[in-house]
Amino acid sequence: MTVPSIRKALDAITFDGPVIGQDHDGYDRYRRIWNGIADRRPAAIVRARGVEDVRKAVGLAADLGALLAVRCGGHSLPGLSTCDDGIVLDLSLINDVVVDKAAGIADVGGGALLGDLDAAGARAGLVTPAGVVSHTGVAGLTLGGGMGWLSRRFGLTIDNLLGAEVVTADGRVIWASAESEPELFWALRGGGGNFGVVTRFRFRMHEFGPIIVGCWTYAAADHERVLLGFDQLSAAAPREMTTNFSFAPSVITVTACWSGNADGAASAVAPFGRLAAPMSGGFGEMPYITLQKRHDEAMAWGMRHYSKGGFLGKIDVSTIARMNEIIATAPATGTDIYILQLGGAITDIDEHATPYSGRAASYYWITNALWDRQADDARYIDWGRKAAKSLAAISLKGNYVNEQADHGKDVAEKAYGAEKYLKLARLKARYDPTNLFRLNQNIEPRAT
C-alpha cells in the first residue's frame, strides 16, 4: 500500500478531526513521539475527535491492509505508536476527564494523559493510582498494568478499571466490563493494545490524605550498606508507604512516599535518611500532582531512550553486587537502575485474574539509558541490553510489557507465560483475527 493511495483513501472520508499528511505544515511536529530514536514518517496522522473518527480510521486501515499505529501519549519505548508509510491514529484530542465525586468514579478519554487524570482527581480530592510521569498516556499505561506511588495502597491501575469502551478491528463499539464482555475485559487488564482502540476508560477513585515524601542522596560507594538497609526497611513498611531508589554511576537516590495518616509519617519516612551518611536530603509534605511531575523533566520528550525492566523477589548481597557490576560499566551520564517497591494491595488480586504477571514480586527494576546524540546510540543501547540481560538472569518469571525497549513475539510470550499467552492468543483470534492491531508487544492470533 503506497503513501499516495492511503492519502487518497483518507481524503475520500470526512473526519471531524484533522488529517495531517506529509505536505502539512505541522507534519513534523505531529509525527514526533516521546522516544527520539523512533524517527518515522507515516503516510498520514488522523487526529480523531471522537468514536466515529476512530471507527472510520480503523475500518480504512483494515480495508487497505495498511499499517495502523495507535497513539495516546506516544510513550511506546520501541516506537510502536508510530510507523513508516502507514496510518497513525492519534487519540490526543479525546482527552476529557469527568469525575463523579459522589460515586468515586472517573470517565477518561482514550487520549488523556496521566496529568489530566491527576489534575481532575485533585480538584475532587480523589485519586486513581497510575504511573510516575505525568505526560504518559493513560491508555498505554493502563493496558499494560499501571504501577506507581499509590499501587501498594490502592492496587495497580488495572485493578481500579471498571470498564472500557473499545473499537474493535471489525468496527464494533463494545463496552467491556466484569458484566459485559468479561473475557475482553480480562484481556485489556495487561494484554496491551492488542484487542482494539480504547476510547474511554472508567476508573474507581479513592480519597486520600496528605503525601509525605522523603528523598536522600548517598554516595554510590556506600551501595551495599544503603541498599541492604533499604530492603530491610521496605520489607517492614505498611501499605501506606512506597519506596524506590535510583542507582547511578556516582550516587544513589532513595525516596520514601507516605500517603496514610500524617501522624505516622515521620516515624515511617525518616529512617530512610539514616541508611548511611546522606549527601543531601530531607522530608516534608508534597502535593500529589507535584510528586507525579517529579520525573517529567528527566524523562523529557525528544531524548533518546532505551529501557528494559523485570521483577525481583528480594534485594540481597548478591543482587546488590550484580547491580554494582552493571553500574560500573555504565556511561557516566544518563544511566541508572531504578527500583520501585511493589507488594501490598497488588498482591490482593489473584495472579490469574489479569494478564499482568508480576503480582508476587517485591520490586520492579528498570535499566535506564537516556542520551541526546544519535552518534551515541550504539554505546548506550549496548549498555542497556547487557544491563537488562544481567538483571533478568536473577529475576522472577514474567515481565511488564510497557517497559521493554525491544519488541517481538518472544517479549509477549515471556511477559505472560505460556498459559496466559495462549488464552490471550485465542481472544486475539476472536477480536482481531487478522492482527490489525500489531504495532504493540504483539500477541499473534491463535484459533485453537
What does this protein look like?
The chain contains 13 helices and 18 strands. It is of the alpha+beta class. The radius of gyration is 22 Å and the shape is globular. The two termini are 31 Å apart.
Q: Summarize model confidence as the mean pLDDT.
A: 96
Q: What is the general shape?
A: globular
Which structural class do the helices and strands define? alpha+beta
Span of the ends, CA to CA:
31 Å
Question: Secondary structure elements and their pairing?
Answer:
Layout: H1 3-11, E1 19-21, H2 27-31, E2 44-47, H3 51-64, E3 68-71, E4 87-90, E5 97-100, E6 105-109, H4 114-124, E7 126-127, H5 138-144, H6 151-154, E8 161-167, E9 173-177, H7 182-188, E10 197-204, E11 206-207, E12 212-219, H8 223-235, E13 241-247, E14 251-258, H9 265-269, E15 280-285, H10 288-292, E16 304-312, H11 317-328, E17 335-341, E18 363-371, H12 377-392, H13 409-431
Parallel strand pairs: 2-4, 3-4
Antiparallel strand pairs: 1-2, 5-6, 6-10, 7-11, 8-9, 8-10, 12-14, 12-15, 13-14, 13-17, 16-18, 17-18
Helix pairs in contact: 8-11, 11-12
Quickly list its features:
alpha+beta, 448 residues, 13 helices
Summarize the structure.
This protein has 448 residues and is an alpha+beta fold. It contains 13 helices and 18 strands.
